[in-house]
Write a structure and sequence with these properties.
With about 675 residues, the protein is an all-alpha fold. It contains 31 helices and 2 strands. The chain has a two-stranded antiparallel ribbon. A hairpin with a 4-residue loop joins β1 and β2. α1 runs parallel beside α6 and α23 packs antiparallel against α24. The radius of gyration is 29 Å and the shape is elongated. The chain starts with 5 loop residues before the first helix and ends with a helix.
Length: about 675
């Protein structure tokens, strides 16, 4: 590969500065949707020393599902969060800065690879990739670190493999394989890399004009990468349908509709957004797939026409590149085109962050086609000037649009308001914005301001009620407002409506019990939960366990502790990993004077859980003061107390621990 020229270095420097300018608002941005799940409230990230937990992947033989302490098994992403959390805590500036740096590295790699395979407009391709507003979502949303980090490993693996193919140095192949594994451990959709490499080999060896006869020794090194990608893909699909929640998605589209309508429509959408990215939205409208509507087959016809034109260009003009580029984008986007269920499909079939890498095929194709048109219609002396003018205008518009879009990610409220401007049908935005406004209402000290925020909140929830997908959550949210306004009867009525619409939502059962407890009708709560269980209205183990849990709570309030203990035992038998339920079981067992079982339950609360220290403190108290003298153990009580004091000392011993220390010293001696 030729050495880098001074002009190229200047161009790269200008590109880096332009990208920093386009993303300048990101340095004032905070955390938005899902950042709590992935970072700010993720216990695995905040763990002081247990980094190994992030890398754990277990297989449950009973359920046939993989289990990970994180939502999806992207350990390199969570490791990066874990490290940063130890450096700058939850200051969003650091996370945004790292995202932007990763994007810049990816931009440079796009230029390096384009240059290696002989694309003359590599700098322009990299510039469009850097500044295109469809990539703002991947850069300005901290959670999308997975796109940026997996993209870095993906592009590095591609660069390394191209070097191996050129020089046949096996250390380059090993490096490419290792980098590919890094990409998979950051985001599994990069499993398509081996097929992208095959297309690149066809382009390079065919010199962009013909289909070469690749030798066996050029093909078989790709097979290990294919196998590794398949394994990673199967694990990811298992996790997506399990912990990520895709199994709760009800898709009313047949396989035929997906292949002939949904796939071409989403593919056309992504291609169109590269050509005309206006408007850019966090949540795009979710269209209705209707096999009876002939207009919905237009994208399919367009895709067939595009492939036919690309095939004609190869056979008649000796240009195989366009066909390979369409295939590249199709393969890279394949996991998100609609063939496989993804939880996000309940909001929209498309999202900008899904085409971070897949956009490259469209970008390169667009640049190549525009260049050919300019060459065709303008003479050679004017060609370069016209190209420069077009490039500057296009990049200026893209950069300005990205700047404006980055402002939308300032905070959650700003993002949801911007989403509703671009897509008024985004019911998730209505619900989430309503919840933010409700929280602001009940934090407001001024009564007039509180009333205004509350009315805005109700208005958004009522608008969300118009959408079938949003009704259960909107009902629950409106009920929460009624509860906070102490209108407990209305709250209970709306919680019941939410349950009738979506019985498998566990949190609503807790809300319903609290509302009915406030009305004094705990018996009705117990009767409702008992009916739900007997009629098998719920199907998810977690929800069933929560119904048993709330039934036990209601029975305990009614003084039926024996029944409460049985219900809680059923909850834990259904879904064992519920520490808050384990702690409630302990309180019931203590009332029943079943101290041995209570102690066993306290010992089962896992380290790292928010109630872990509280459980240990309760165990210390029982070990020191248990009415059953045979269960007292001062030695264990003192040892556990020392452990608790060691974990809380840095923050100052809480009064409850100081009191517990006094009790243990009085009973067991200093």
């Amino acid at each position: 590969m030729a050495s880098v020229t001074r002009r190229e270095l200047i161009g790269l420097l200008v590109l880096v500065m332009a990208t920093l300018l386009a993303y300048l608002p990101v340095f004032n941005n905070g955390f938005v949707w899902d950042d709590d799940l992935w970072l700010t409230e993720n216990q695995a990230v905040h763990s002081p020393g247990d980094l190994g937990a992030i890398w754990q992947l277990k297989y449950d033989h009973d359920t046939g599902e993989f289990q990970s302490p994180t939502t999806q098994y992207y350990p390199l992403v969570f490791t990066s969060f874990w490290i940063e959390n130890k450096i700058w805590g939850l200051d969003p500036l650091g996370y945004h800065a790292i995202n932007l740096v990763l994007h810049l590295f990816n931009v440079l790699l796009v230029w390096v690879i384009a240059r290696r395979i002989g694309l003359g407009s590599g700098l322009l391709i990299a510039a469009i990739f850097a500044l295109h507003p469809v990539h703002v979502e991947s850069v300005a949303w901290v959670t999308q670190r997975r796109n940026l980090l997996s993209g870095l490993f993906y592009l590095l693996a591609m660069w390394s493999y191209l070097g191996f193919d050129h020089r046949r140095q096996w250390w380059r192949w090993v490096l490419a394989l290792g980098l590919f594994v890094g990409a998979l451990l950051s985001k599994t959709v990069t499993a398509t890399l081996p097929f992208a490499l095959l297309l690149l080999l066809v382009f390079v060896h065919g010199k962009g004009s013909h289909l070469p006869r690749l030798k066996v020794n050029q093909l078989w090194p790709l097979l290990p990468l294919v196998l590794v990608g398949m394994v990673a893909g199967l694990v990811a699909a298992n996790l997506e349908t399990g912990s990520a929640g895709a199994n709760t998605l009800v898709m009313d589209t047949s396989i035929v509709e997906r292949i002939f309508i949904l796939v071409p429509s989403t593919f056309a959408f992504y291609a169109g957004k590269i050509l005309w990215p206006f408007p850019v939205s966090f949540i795009y409208p979710r269209w209705v797939v209707d096999a009876g509507n002939p207009l919905q087959y237009i994208p399919l016809l367009g895709l067939v026409a595009a492939m036919a034109a690309a095939f004609w260009g190869w056979r008649r003009l000796g240009q195989i590149g366009p066909m390979l580029l369409i295939l590249f984008s199709g393969l890279t986007l394949a996991p998100a085109l609609g063939l496989f269920d993804v939880y996000f499909f309940r909001y929209s079939y498309v999202a900008d962050h899904w085409q971070y890498l897949g956009s490259l095929g469209f970008i390169i194709l667009l640049v190549v086609l525009v260049e050919k048109l300019v060459r065709r219609f303008f003479s050679k002396p004017n060609y370069r000037k016209i190209s420069v003018v077009i490039s500057v205008v296009v990049l200026g518009v893209l950069g300005a649009t990205s700047f404006q879009q980055t402002l939308a990610y300032k905070d959650a409220e700003t993002l949801w308001r911007h989403t509703l401007k671009t897509n008024p049908t985004a019911w998730i935005a209505l619900n989430n914005l309503g919840r933010i406004e409700a929280e602001m209402a009940f934090q407001a000290q001024d009564q007039r301001l509180r009333f205004e925020w509350l009315n805005k909140s109700k208005s958004h929830f009522e608008q969300a009620m118009k959408f079938d997908e949003a009704r259960p959550e909107a009902c629950n949210n409106l009920a929460n407002i009624a509860y906070l306004q102490k209108d407990y009867n209305k709250a209970a009525q709306m919680y019941l409506e939410a349950i009738s619409l979506q019985p498998d939502e566990p949190g609503v059962y807790y809300n319903l019990r609290m509302a009915l407890s406030a009305t004094g009708d705990v018996a009705q709560a117990a009767a409702i939960f008992d009916r739900v269980l007997k009629e098998k209205l719920v199907h998810e183990d977690l929800t069933r366990a929560e119904v048993y849990h709330q039934l036990g709570r209601a029975q305990a309030e009614l003084g039926a502790n024996d029944k409460a203990a049985a219900s809680i035992q059923q909850a834990l038998a259904t879904y064992p990993s519920l520490p808050n339920v384990q702690l409630f079981q302990v309180s019931v067992l203590v009332k029943l004077e079943r101290y041995r079982e209570a102690m066993a339950g306290l010992r089962r609360v896992p380290r790292g859980h928010g109630e872990y220290l509280g459980a240990k403190a309760t165990l210390v108290r029982l070990l020191a003061t248990c009415p059953d003298s045979s269960l007292r153990d001062c030695r264990e009580a003192k040892a556990l107390l020392l452990e608790i004091e060691g974990e809380t000392k840095s923050r100052g011993l809480p009064p409850a621990i100081v009191e517990l220390h006094s009790i243990v010293n009085r009973i067991c001696g200093p």
